[in-house]
Amino acid sequence: ARLGRLIQYIPFTVTQGFTSAIGVVIGVLQLKDFLGLPIAKLPEGFLAQAATIGARIGEARVEDFSIGLATFVTLVFWPRVTKRVPAPLVALVLGAALAEAARRWAPGFSVATVGSRFANAVSPPSFALPWTLPGAHGETFAFDFDAVRRLLPSAFAIALLVSIESLLSAVVADALMGTNHDPDAELMAQGTGNFAAAFFGGFGATGALARTATNVRAGARSPVSAVVHAAVLLAVSAWAAPWIAYLPMASLAALLMMTAWNLADVRYFARLLRQSPSHDVVVLMTCFVLTLVFDMEVGVTAGVTLASLLFMRRMSESVGFRTAAPSPASQEAPPPGVVFYEVAGPFFFGAAAKLVSRLKDVLGSARCLVLDVGAVPFIDATGLVNLRSVVDRLRVRRTPILLARVQPEVARALRRAGLEPEPGVFELHDDPQSAAASARAIAAGDVPWGRTPAPPRGA
Asked: What predicted TM-score, i.e. pTM, was given to this entire model?
């Protein structure tokens, strides 16, 4: 649908708010495995999960914590040694080696591993169509309207968030490499991959901000790096699964904590809070808090909605409405009984009521109203309704309204709305001088109601 360009309309404060919140969620939840806490199952909701982890913090195991700490320190300091070998590979191998060595040489030493936590981790993955597998309670999947109705909202939300996150990852890569990506091509590839993955038991994936930046810093310069990444993961899953079973859960938790730190980008988040305008800070914190308290869908939806409302408010405040002279060059005063006003900015629903209210205040006993709308780029349905209301009200008072310098798009909107020019009642003029001449004749009583003044001889 070529919606890739719409990414530029998602405020950065929204994306930063929910990605930072996701980073916090990931980091806090890894404390369970990093510290080896004996928690069989965490409750629903981040706040309840964090409270449970905090209440059991005193049950941390030294064995898991030591392996996790060694892995984390390696992740932090290995890039200072060399960047040719990625730090996660070195850190995970080191963590597994330390855990296995300690298990053999220190009686009673044990840590949770992938193999001990997930019994099926030592066997290669099996591929099956997901809708042929039994559900959580053994039920079979029935493809019907009710299933579509239940799945469609979540599917749409996932597709939207996957698109936003992937395009943001592409923006990060552009900034690091000085390139320009095609957002529509990115969405086509992302959507095709996620759609095809479902037929092999896979689930929706997205470009990741932290991993994209890490990939580029490691030397990636083309989409081939993603293909190599996928191929290596497939090979590891299919043939190296028994070796994966030796990885300590504390080491994986340390790796995810490092990823969460990069994703949250705490220093940049704090800088946004200090330097951003107040309305952007409100959007940022709203999206951040709601993502933590509820989920990403609620946070993003509320953030985009709030950002849109605040933007409309700022747009309506930027619309100018001031008195003007009939001729900007001469700055002459308007004739008695004629009110000249200049409108600058879009005549949309956020500003229409404000402008109409101002018109009511200034009309008084005016015999003619002239509006210079040369700086009005467009008018929406609400603006048309309010303008028609003004025209009808002035018609009852037998007060003509003249519009000068009407932009082509505004003129087309007026015609579509049925606001056709009516001489002596509702007129459109190419320039303020022409509108001023007609207004003078009307104010002087030279023109009867409902008739336009005759042009001067020779015009």
From this structure: 0.69
